[in-house]
Amino acid sequence: MATIATTKSKNILLHGKPPFPLHPLTLAEIMVGHARDGHEIEVWQELQQLGMELYTPPHDEWLHLARLRNRHRLKNARYMCSGGRHILE
Question: Does 13 have pLDDT greater than 70?
């Protein structure tokens, strides 16, 4: 069963216009299993062919995330970056 976040992500990939920024923490989570198998470079190349690019967070992003988590009382603030905007999932 697909989650709402998964459905949104698929729609962005299918109907959006590249490039698609990918946060370094998200990329690291994606690559854990692939690194275990020794395929992380090939998977990253495939993601790049789909239009993914590594997002470089601003130096104070940690502060914005801390405030976001506090404001919404979240244990984990998962978000995606879309054109420089943070979208809370």
Answer: yes
